[in-house]
Amino acid sequence: MRTKRRLARANYAPPQQPAAQPPVRGGRRELYLWKMKFVLGIHPNALAYSMTTLGAGMMNSIFNFYYVKLFLNRYKISEVAFHQAQVVFMIWNAINDPLFGYIQDNSKFACCSRRQFSILYGAPLYALAFLLPWFPWKHYEEGDWLSGLHLIVALCAFDGLLTFVLLAQCALFAEISTRHESRLQLIKYNQVATLIGSTSILFCGLISDNMENFAYFQAFTVLVAALATACMCYTGKYSTSQYEQREIYTENANRENGDGALSWSSVISLTKQIMTEKNFLFFVTMNFFQVFHLAFCNNFMMIFADNLIPKDVLSSSVRSIMYGAGFICPQCLVLLSHASLKKFGYYRIILFSFYFEGVAAAVMFVLGPEHYYLLAFYLTTNMVIVQASFSLFNLPLADIVDADLIKHKRRSPLSSMVFGTNALFTKPAQSLAPMLVVTILNQFGYENLSNEVAQPDPSLFLGLHDAMFYLICLVPLCIAVIQILTWTPFSIQNSHMIAVR
Predict the structure, then answer these.
(1) Residue 465 and residue 370: Cα distance in Å, rounded?
(2) SS3 sequence of 117-136
(3) Residue pair 370/309 in contact by the 8 Å Cβ criterion
């Protein structure tokens, strides 16, 4: 016996560290992830998470930047039909986020309850919805009722699928890890993906001559839709979270909340619990105005620049670069501020951005609209700052998810519910911004300007140009003041100083 023990000890070799050898079992997927992490030095989960951002970024940038100008200037939609579409969109936009959030957190079907499956199966439909506005259902006459219906269908379909896919991704952000360092890593990968995705605006403008060559524009959108689908499917296949065993957690959540039926009482109860958090209310109020400001920039930057800056001052190619910079530079700014985020935290960075926006708007208002190059720089910079600060908003929302998990002693986080309830109150701003601005501009003759075939006499639209200039200065200034007042009381200010929560 002793001899056998000695031989056993002599033949015993200590096991290798897991990181030093590829996994023996689990198939190709695990081997692929092992090579990504230890051979190429890429974090596979962060890469997989960010691929949805890449795909969505390519489509969302083009959709938000071009759809208003397309329906107003090319499809000649009437102001009444435009407002009707925005009202329907505003209602649907507010309802679908908490609805999908509740379904994804409580559904028994894997295509809804598993974040990865929601992205995988929703991606092709999301891409098809993106293509809806770019292909007219017929040749529209001015004020054609069908163009109004087209806008309603395009907006509601696109936002519905966007919500279903991106809500699952937002939930993944909160569930991949609760560590601040890990979340900053996700933000870093995310911004690189957004940076690459936002170049779609630049290339779309250059290829289609800012939508003047509509056939090229349509072909480019089809290419973007195909690439975006492939990117998002990658997330669905390769992303993981610390709540991977969704079936177990779903059963626990169902027992916690009753019989697991999707009842209105459960929706109201969970939403009430989320909304009793003061930090959530402060964040939602601030975020509402951020969404309004972002929609204002995305939808009208091109219109304002085309009307306030003469074409002999900025050529079409320079304008394309300018518009592309408005989507590309925010991601560069966030990547460059990675060290500052670690040192100061998102709370102070976001607060500083509000002060910067307010001061820049006040300075531009004092200088006046005659400084064309400065005006172009201001329009681009304002859009960059707004988009860059908005890119950080998943961090406070993830902290709110963590606080809700601890406060109510849940077995699993209500990530989708928190993100969905936030969207319930902030998404209407996406419709209010274009409705309000189009109404104001039409009071000063923009509808007549967009209907002119020939280049109109600029002197006939001096009032319109003044109104545009006041809008691009006073709207950001007022929003900055409101956001400073609502963001200052937010109490989760030092999560970056806690290594593990």
Answers:
(1) 11
(2) HHHHHHHHHHHHHHHHHHCC
(3) no
Q: Which residues, including other chains, have CB under 8 Å from residue 470's CB and lie 6 or more apart?
A: 365
Please list, in sequence order, all residues whose beta carbon lies within 8 angstroms of the beta carbon of residue 82, skipping any fewer than 6 positions away.
71, 72, 148, 151, 434, 435, 438
| CA trace torsion 20, 24, 27, 28 (10° rounding) | 30
Distances (CA, A) of 317 to 197, 199, 372: 20, 14, 16
- pTM to 2 decimal places: 0.71
Say how far apart CA 412 and CA 263 lie, in whole Å.
Answer: 19
What whole-number distance in Å separates Cα of residue 155 and Cα of residue 140?
18
**Rounded Cα gap, residues 222 and 59, in angstroms:** 10
Task: Give the separation between CA 118 and CA 233, rounded to whole angstroms.
Answer: 10
Q: pLDDT class for 376, splitting at 50, 70, 90?
A: very high
Q: In 3D, which of 334, 357, 307 has the Cα closest to residue 463?
A: 307
Q: What tokens were used for 232?
A: 């998002």
Residue found by looking up tokens 């006046």 in the block: 368
Q: Tell how far CA 109 is from the center of its chain.
A: 26
Contacts of residue 62, defined as CB under 8 A and 6 or more positions apart, other chains included, come to 130, 200, 201, 204, 221, 224
Other beta carbons less than 10 A from residue 317's beta carbon:
12
Residue type, 400: I
When computed from its CA atoms, the radius of gyration of the chain, rounded to whole angstroms, is: 25
DSSP string, 301-316: HHHHHHHHS-TTTS-H
pLDDT (mean) for 398-414: 78
Q: Is the pLDDT of residue 262 over 60?
A: no
How confident is the model over 265-283, as pLDDT tens digits?
A: 776 777 788 888 888 999 9
The residues, ordered by sequence, that sit 6+ positions from 428 with a Cβ below 8 Å of its Cβ are 90, 93, 94, 288
304 in Cβ contact with 379 (< 8 Å): yes
CA 477/CA 458 separation, integer angstroms: 27
Residue 445, classed as helix, strand or coil, is: coil
What are the two backbone dihedrals, phi and then psi, of residue 314, each rounded to the nearest 5 degrees?
A: -125, 120
Q: How many residues make up the chain in this entry?
A: 501
Task: Reduce the secondary structure of 367-429 to three states and give it as a string.
Answer: HCCCCHHHHHHHHHHHHHHHHHHHCCCHHHHHHHHHHHHHHCCCCCCCHHHHHHHHHHHHCHH
| Mean pLDDT, the chain, integer | 80
- The answer to whether 222 and 59 have CB atoms below 8 angstroms apart is no
Among 469, 192, 127, residue whose Cα is nearest residue 309: 469
Classify the phi-psi angles of 41: left when phi > 0, otherwise alpha if psi is within -120 to 50, otherwise beta.
Answer: left
What does the pLDDT read at residue 361?
95
Question: How far is C-alpha 36 from the geometric centre of its chain's CA atoms?
Answer: 27
Question: For residues 340 and 261, what is the distance between their CA atoms, to the nearest angstrom?
Answer: 45
